[in-house]
Each structure stands twice: as structure tokens, then as C-alpha cells.
Design a protein that fits this description.
The protein is of the alpha+beta class. It has helices at 2-7, 9-16, 64-67, 71-82, 95-106, 115-127, 140-144, 153-157, 162-167, 248-258, 267-275, 291-298, 314-326, 348-362, and strands at 21-23, 26-29, 42-45, 56-58, 138-139, 171-173, 183-189, 195-203, 233-235, 260-264, 281-283, 304-308, 331-334.
Length: 365
Amino acid sequence: MNNIIAENIEQICDYFNIKLSMAGKCYIGKCPIHKGDNPTAFNFYHTRGHSTIGNWVCNTHECHNIFGNNSLGLIRALLSVKNGWGKEGDSQKSFAEAVKWCEKHLGIKYKSGNRTRDISNVINRLYVKENLKYKINLSNSQYLNSGLVFPDKYFLSRGYQPKTIKEFAIGFCANPVKPMYNRAIVPLHDNEGKKIIGCSGRIVYAKCDICQSYHDTKKICPNKDFKNLYPKWKHSSSFPGKYSLYNWHRAIKYIQKSGLAILTEGQPNVWRLFEAGFPMSLSCFGSNLAIEQKRVLDTSGAHTIIIVPDADKASEKFTKKIIELCKHSYNIVTIEPSYDDDIGECNIETVKTILSPFVEKYRYE
């Protein structure tokens, strides 16, 4: 897609009334995003002899960091400015709107009618390194036959519904020679949901009051100096978490339909939100949203983000980071925790009471 947009840069300039001149391997001019007066601030790399075809940079205000420096990011930026961004408000046009513009004005058509799959492919091409090799690369059937115990009883005992445990394929590692021994296993998928490229494991024991680690308290307590010897959650070291959002492959079609993305910290929160009828929920794998995760989110077509933080100090960082990265791209709604721990510990009716007013207010339907 970068190539096709680059080949049509002159048509794009005509449509948006931009004046650029060719200089070597790029077009240069005043930045059309922040409307500066530097005649060489804006660089767009065209198809003749450059390795980053279709990419662009703003050398003065770094506008490319707001919208993304690929060609679709440029279309988003230009559409946003045309819509009044930077003057009348902070509302940006979405990735989906940029795609629609390219389809209408440049004749770009996706080969498949499955828009969710195509958008996932675009994500992988634009944001994930092409040479990234996964140490874990299992099909769903291989995972289900990997020796784990199904269904996982730990999260069943915490009140999650059997159909939820099955839907999210949560198992239990009973093999003492495995690094995830005595942990409930959560499979982590690629953006299309076809491959399992990592896993998270939640130890089935509660926190020890003595060492502050998680272990079988019927056995000898580890030395207090090794309080992280048995962490609550353990993750595959090879999993490319900063390029991923948990539950993406399930949630994307609901995000596109509703215009809403619900962001939370842990995977169990996603499961409870799913049970309560909010399938557009995603987890950031902890109390941080990486810029690469934000770029994946930008491809969803969402116009509003609902932040559902945990009720602890780390959640302040979580909320602040999302607002910092996303305030120019989305409407942002932050849920003030009325619960003691996290949304995953609430019952379904409580979750509905908390979320429903915001979902009904901001969704497309």
C-alpha cells in the first residue's frame, strides 16, 4: 500500500492543495500538517530509489510521530487537518477513514472481503519487523494437544464461566519439568488469531505474607530476599508484546462495528468484560501502552477509547500513558474504579452497571 500511495503523491497533492517539489529521492516542502513556513521541513520519500517508500517526516514539529510516518499515516494526517484538526479541536481521522479515502480516490482495493483479516495484514506489514522469528509458533490444534490440562480449574474457581475458559483456551500446566509448572496458561495469538506465538502463566497460589512471593504456603517459604522467585504472572520471553494487544483477533470486528475500544491491564479483565457483553475489550499486558501498541490500535477504526484501570497506584501510570499517546487521536473516557482490585474481580452485573452507560453513549449503534 505504501508503494501505491507513493506512486500517486501528485494526485494526493492536488486533492489536498499541497505544493511539493522533487529533490533527489524525496518530495520536499512546507509541512501541510502544522502549516509551518520552513520550505524543507516536510519530506516524502517516493518510489524512485529510496528504501523507505511512502514514508514521511516533519523535521520541525515531528508531526509524523502523531499520526505515524507511513503513507496511511500521512493520509490520516491530511484528512484530519482538512477536518479542522489543530484549529478547531483535537479529533483525528481514523485508520479506517484513511483506507476508505484511498479506496475511493486511488482505486486501492483489498483482495479479500474480510476487512478484519486485511487490516491485520496491514499491521504486520507496516509495524512488525518482517524478519521477526517466533520461538513459539503453534497452531490452535497443536496448542490444545500440547499436554496442558483443559479446562483450567484455577480461573474456574475464581468465578469465570466454563464457556469463557473454553473460548480463551485457558489450560493448566501440570508438568513439573516445564517452566510454567503450576500455572494457568493463557495462549497469546498473532494479530490474525491463526498462530499462538507466546503464553502467559498465572501461578495458582496466593501471595505469601512472609516473603511476598507466590508459592505453596504448605511448603517451606523461600528466603525473603528472593521475593520475586515465584512471580504472580510469568510470560514467554520471546513474545513481541509491544506489537500486540491481547484479544485483538477477537475484538477487532466489534471495535469496527461499535467505534469503541476498551483498554484494560490484565487478561482476566478482558474475560470478565467479555462475559458482561463487551467483546471490544483489549489488554495492554500490564500498566503501560507502548507506541507500537498504539499504532496497532490506530488501525482499528475506533473513535473512542474507554480506559478501565485497576484500582492501584500502577493504574495511574497506565491511564496517564494512554492519554498522553492517544489524546490527539481519540475521544478518551476513563472509568474511575469503584471496585477494590480490578474489573475482573467484579461480578457481571456490576461490570454492566459500570460500563453500559459509557458504551451506549459513545457507540455507533
